[in-house]
Amino acid sequence: MGQTLCICSRGSLTIDNKRYYFIQKLDEGGFSYVDLLEGVQDGRFYALKRILCHDREARQEAQTEVEMHQLFSHPNILSLTAHTFVDRSGKSEAWLLLPYISKGSLWSVLEKLRDKGSSMPERRILHILHGICSGLKTIHERGYAHRDLKPTNVLLDEDDRPLLMDLGSMNKARIEVRGSREAMTVQDWAAQRCTISYRAPELFNVESHCIIDARTDIWSLGCVVYSMMFLEGPFDVVFQKGDSVALAVQNSVVIPQPCSYSEGLQSLLSSMMVSNPQERPAVGWVLDQVQDLRTRSPNTHTHMV
């Protein structure tokens, strides 16, 4: 898939024998760029993620991200429309063509709520959480973990349907660590690929003999739920102040009180944010709890103290 490419003229390019117009730049990261394209044939908008591959290892990582997208066809996991690898002026780039979601990320929605001095209604939190859990459950059932779940990696479409994105940090859910060298390898990898303020405690100081599993995602999921409730992650302030996140995650997360959300939602959040991974639930259990809370949740719940 995706070996055909030409930049036909300024402002237009071809991927997989289909032409697209370049509209504008959307985002820029350390080693990637995201551009907005419009399909010439279908008139739809797409996001083109261009990953700079400086070496063979980076190219392999981009290839892995492509393969992760291709593994899943799920309404809550962002699909891959097309891809190709491009060599431009001696440098290799991976191009991933993705559907464009105009509403943006969950984080951008939370920022807007914060700016307005508003909050997210409980029913909306549960609706979004249900979709995230559905996508995550599918990933876990296939034996993988996302490893970098955070509000900026969840897109929301016009119906508030969440889509998990940025699958570049995904790997096998179960990692058996045998010895200090392997532990340091996993720890270094996590430091590079798993965002610090959403990273599970067991990934900060990896023990010499242990098993890392999909419950790293449950911790991150708890951080996402907290951010929907309080419009910032539980460790965002710790990180911003320059204090030790590694130390902070060893303690139980305290839910700010008074809290206007239901006891059920607060209890669910607490169950996910347990520093010992063995005591965290599986995503299937979380999904069941969310479904139960949705049946009991009031229709209006807009104000937080």
From TrEMBL:
It catalyses: L-seryl-[protein] + ATP = O-phospho-L-seryl-[protein] + ADP + H(+); L-threonyl-[protein] + ATP = O-phospho-L-threonyl-[protein] + ADP + H(+). GO terms for molecular function: ATP binding; protein serine/threonine kinase activity. Keywords: ATP-binding, Kinase, Nucleotide-binding, Serine/threonine-protein kinase, Transferase. GO terms for cellular component: Golgi apparatus. The keyword Mitochondrion does not apply. Residues 20-304 form the Protein kinase domain. Its EC number is 2.7.11.1. The keyword Nucleotidyltransferase does not apply. Gene3D superfamilies: Phosphorylase Kinase, domain 1 (3.30.200.20), Transferase(Phosphotransferase) domain 1 (1.10.510.10). PROSITE patterns: PROTEIN_KINASE_DOM, PROTEIN_KINASE_ST. PANTHER family: SERINE/THREONINE-PROTEIN KINASE 16, SERINE_THREONINE-PROTEIN KINASE 16. This is non-specific serine/threonine protein kinase. It comes from Merluccius polli (Benguela hake).
